[in-house]
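Hi U.,

Before I forget, here's the chain from the pilot set. I'm dumping it here mostly so it's searchable later in email.
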Amino acid sequence: MIRVTRGVTTAVALLALTAAAPWEASAQPAPGSPAASAPGSRSGGLTLPEGWRITGTGAGAQLVWTSSERVPMGDARVEFHSGDRLLGRPLAQPDGRSFALPLGDARLDEGTRLRVTAGGRRLDAPGRAAAAGERPLSPAPVPPAPLPANRVDPGRPGPYRTVSGEYALRSVRLPGYLEPVEMRATVVGPAGAPGRRPVALFLHGRHATCYTPGTEDVRMAWPCPAGTVPIPSERGYLRAQRLLASQGYVTVSVAANGVNGQDESAEDAGAQARSSLVRLHLARWADWAAHPASAPAAVRGTAPADLSRVLLVGHSRGGEGVNRAAVDSLNPPPAAEDGYRGPVRWKIRGTVLIGPTVFGQNPAPDVPSTTILPGCDGDVSDLQGQIYLDGTRGVSRGTALHSAAYVVGANHNFFNSEWTPGQAKAPAIDDFSSDDGTDPVCSPGTATRLTATQQQAAGATYIAASARLFVGGDDAVRPLLDGTGRRAPSAGPARVLTHAVGGHRTPAFLPGSSVTVSGGGRLCAQIDPDPARACLRPEAGSSPHFAYWEAAAEPGRDAVAMRWTGTGSRVAVRASRPVSLAGAESLALRVIVPPNTTGTELDVAVTDASGRRASLGRTRVDGLPGSPRTAAYWAREVRVPLTAATRAGLDLRRIGTLELTARGGAGSAWLMDAWGWRPGTPAAHPTALTRVDIGRMTVTEGDSGVRTYRVPVTVSGRGSGQVRLFVPVPDSDRVTSRIVTVRPGRHDIDVPVRIRGNTRFGYDVRHDAFVKAVRGTVVGAHRGGVTARNDDAMPAVRLTPVADDVTEGSALSWRMTLSEPADVEIAGGILLKPVTDGPELSTADLDPVWLEAQWGEVPQPPRPLSGVIEGGTSLWLSVPAGATTTQVSIPTVRDGVAEPTESLRGAPFTYDETWEPVLGPEFTGRVRDAA
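Structure:
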C-alpha cells in the first residue's frame, strides 16, 4: 500500500464546498482546468517541479505532468518516478501533452525528485543528454571494415511471383475491452508455388489509431471518431511480406487498432489481447486450410497455407503480443482472460521481435527468436527487448536459439512504412529526437544513421533470415544471427551485429549466486539503485541488458564488472561446481565495453577442477557507436577455440575457473556470460513447463472487522518449476522477493492481504505481487494483486468566513469544516475571480513571505490577485487525515498609502461526472484602508 503525504492532494477541489450549506462532492477534475495548480508552484506545502501539477483529491487526486509540446503516441509505457522508485504508469490525456496518475497509488514528500520516462528515456528533460547527467557527446568511432559476407543471402528475392489482397471479417470481443476489435489483415503470398506453404504472420505495434485525411490530426481512440479514418498500420510491412512471398511464404499482416485504442489501462499493456487476436487469425487460417472454399478471396488467391510451419513477426508492443501468442500456443492461458478458447491447430516455429516491449519480462523459452534492436530507437529506447534473450537462460532445456541483432543507425518507426514520413498515408514522424543538438550517431545525415529505405531493407533481410533458419531449417543462414560475425549483402550499408544464447551452446559461467569473482572484478547487480552494487551508474549510460523492470533492486540479474588501470589486471570467475565444456568447439563470451571504444583486449584462460590451466587466446572487443541518447552498452560475442585446453590435457567435463586478463591501458568491461559453443542448429523441442498467471481481485473494504484475501494465482501445465515472487511491502518503498517452487493444482504462491473495514472515506488501495520465471516455468500475466475499494462517501464540506472584512495589516480568513473525519487528507480550493466592482486586492497588498509560500515567487510587477496564475489563480485548503477543520488566511500589509477599499472575489469549485468544472456560490473579502 502506498499513501500520499505532505498535502499532495491539496491541488484541486474534488470537494463539497459551500459558503453556508453542505455541498455534495463530485468527480475528479480534468487536467488543464482552471483550478489546476500551476507548474512549478507550491501545492499544499509541496513544491512541484516545472511542468508538474496536482489535480483532484480523495480517490480522484492525480499527479499530472504536461509537456511543452505534444508527446507522440508510442509503444513504450510512460512512467512517473520519484527518485529511484516507480510511482506508477499514468494515462495519456486528450490534449496529447498531459499524463495523469491517480495519487492513491503514490507517495510524495518535500524534495522528491520527480521524473517521467518512456522506455528509459526522460520526457521531462531537454533531450536525452539531460537524462544522462549531461555527458558530453562523444564522437562516433570510424566505422570498421564490413564483416565478411555470409555465403547465403536471405534478402534476395525468390522465384515466385507475388499476389496480394485484404480481408475483413466480423469484429471480435476480447476480455477486458469494451469495444469490439477488428479482424482485418493484408495478405501477400506466392503464385504458383507447389504444395502447402509456410506462414508468416505480422503484428504491428502501438501507434496512433485514427487520422483526419489532409491534416496533421491523429488520434488514439477506438472506434475512430466521426471524420477520421483508421491508420493502416498493418500495410506497413509490405516490403518484408513481398520478399517472403517471393520465397514461398504465405504472409498475413494483422490490424490491431482496436487493441491499441483500448489498452492504456490494461495491466499487461495489451499483451494478452494481442495474443488472442493473433491466435484468432491463425484459427481462421486453419479453418480455411481445411475448407478452402470458405476462405476470403485474398486467401484463395494465393497458395494454400501449412499451419504446421508458422513464423510470427511482431513490432514493438506487437513483438510482446506475438511472444505471448507463442507462450499461449504451448501453454494455454486461463480461459477467463483469453479471447481464443479453441484448439491449437498450428505450430509456431519461431518469432521475430522488432524493437519490442517486454513489460512482463516473460519470454517464450522454447520458441526460437530473433530480436531486432534499433540502435537509434526513440520510442522503446532502453531496448528492453534484449530480455527476450537474457531472460531465457536456465529457464528450460535451452535448445531454442535466441538471437539479438543490433542495427546501428535504425530508429523505431521506419521498420513500418505507414509510420514513416514520405511513405505513410497518415501523419508520421522520425521517433528519434535530438532536440538539444545534433547527435553524432543518430541524427539524419550522419554516417551511421540509416535512411528509411535502408532500414526497411535490413529489416526484411533479417526477417527472411529468421524464417529460413527457424522455419526452413537452413543452417547456412545461422552465422547471420548467432554472433559468428557475418553480413547479408542485401541489407545494404546497414551494420548489423548479433549475439545469441541457446542453440548448440552449453552454459558454463553465468554470473549469479553460482559463481564467485576475484581479482580486478566484482559480481554486480544489473538492477540496483546502490552504486556500489550496480553494474552501470545511470549517468554513465544505458545498457539493453540492464533494462529496468518492476523493482528498483532486482535479485537474480547479475554480471561481472571489470575495471583496470593497466595491463595485466586479472579477473577470475569461479563456478561453485565444475562445468562441462565437453563437445564444445569454442568458448563463446558475451562482453560489454563502453561505446565508441576500440581495441579492448582480453586474454582468456580456463582451469579445470584438478588445477590444470590453459590459455585459450586473446580476444578484441570494440564498443558500439553510441551517444547519451542511445542504449549502446551492448555485449559483443567473441569466441576462443578450446584446442589449447585439449592439448594441455584439461578435463573439459570439469572446468572450474575462467580467467580474463586485460591488455593495454586503463579500461572497463562487463562479462554477461560464457558458453561452450559448437556450430549447428538443434531442433527446438518444447519442454513441459509449468505456467503461472497472477490475477487481480477487487474487494470492498467493508465497514468493520478484518478480512484476509489472497492474491489470485493460477498454476497450470505439467511438472514443477520455480519463479521469483516479488511483493511490495505495505507502507514502504521496499519490495521483498523469494524463490517459490510451483506445481499445478497446489497453492505454492500464497500472498495473504489483510483488509480492515471502516466507515471513513479513504483511497482505493492496491496490494500487488509480480513474478518472473526462474526454472521450468513460463509466466503469462506477470502482475496482479488485491485492490481494496473505498466504499465510504467523501465528507460534506462547509466553507464559512472567519474574517472577511478587515483593515490592512490584518488577515482575511475562511474556515473549511468536514462533516466527519477522513482517513486521508481532504483538500479543496478557491478560484479567485477578477473583481468587477471597485479596485481588486493586488499582490502589493499582501505579505511577500506568504506569496512566496503560495506560488513560489513574489510577482513583479504587482498584479491583481486573480491574475497571479494565467488561466486562473487558486488558493488551497487542506484538512489533514483524522481532522475536521482547517483555515485559509490571506495576510495583508500596511502600505501607508491612502486608497479606497479593495476586495477579492472568489468561489469554491468542484467537478461534475464529466469532469467539467462546477463553481460554488461566490463570496467576497474586503480590505479597508488603515488610515
